[in-house]
Amino acid sequence: FSVLQQAGRNPSQKTINKYWTSQTTSLNFDDFCAILKKEKPATKSELLEAFGKIDTEKTGFISHDELYKILTTRGDKMTWEEVTTVTKQADFNCSGKLDYSKFCELYVATSEQCCKAARDRLEIDPRLRQQQFGNQTENSSEGIALPVPKPSPRSSRTAD
């Protein structure tokens, strides 16, 4: 989960369960790359669309209270502390409201920086490509075969 987040993805538990089943003990780097190709990061327009559904008055802002309510009750629920961390870093004008357009810009830029940093680390140390993720119960250098998910139409991402 956290490895996918570091790669700029925000997977739900349902997404994780597609790739990490009860038979999965580890994933190698190539498996991980295959997942990244299938699970695209959210785009700014997708994020703005999701926030726009919350901002029914189309002001460009949502209150921190609205954000707390949504992020702690829907989807992969966050803790109050996690949401507080987000709101402290994203309260650009100290108004108690989230300027979600600026937030989306920051999110996309941060995601791109994380991906670039990861690529730079791989170029410096190619041994990182051989790392296994998960339980190391075997000394095998090969990963497991990933289940092939059924094709489905890509649905619009939401704030949860």
UniProtKB/TrEMBL annotation:
<dbReference type="GO" id="GO:1903569">
    <property type="term" value="P:positive regulation of protein localization to ciliary membrane"/>
</dbReference>
<keyword id="KW-0106">Calcium</keyword>
<dbReference type="GO" id="GO:0060170">
    <property type="term" value="C:ciliary membrane"/>
</dbReference>
<protein>
    <recommendedName>
        <fullName>EF-hand calcium-binding domain-containing protein 7</fullName>
    </recommendedName>
</protein>
<feature type="compositionally biased region" description="Polar residues">
    <location>
        <begin position="131"/>
        <end position="142"/>
    </location>
</feature>
<feature type="domain" description="EF-hand">
    <location>
        <begin position="42"/>
        <end position="77"/>
    </location>
</feature>
<keyword id="KW-0472">Membrane</keyword>
<dbReference type="InterPro" id="IPR002048">
    <property type="entry name" value="EF_hand_dom"/>
</dbReference>
<keyword id="KW-0479">Metal-binding</keyword>
<keyword id="KW-1003">Cell membrane</keyword>
<keyword id="KW-0677">Repeat</keyword>
<dbReference type="Pfam" id="PF13499">
    <property type="entry name" value="EF-hand_7"/>
</dbReference>
<feature type="region of interest" description="Disordered">
    <location>
        <begin position="131"/>
        <end position="160"/>
    </location>
</feature>
<dbReference type="InterPro" id="IPR052266">
    <property type="entry name" value="Miro-EF-hand_domain"/>
</dbReference>
<keyword id="KW-0966">Cell projection</keyword>
<dbReference type="GO" id="GO:0098797">
    <property type="term" value="C:plasma membrane protein complex"/>
</dbReference>
<dbReference type="InterPro" id="IPR011992">
    <property type="entry name" value="EF-hand-dom_pair"/>
</dbReference>
<dbReference type="GO" id="GO:0005509">
    <property type="term" value="F:calcium ion binding"/>
</dbReference>
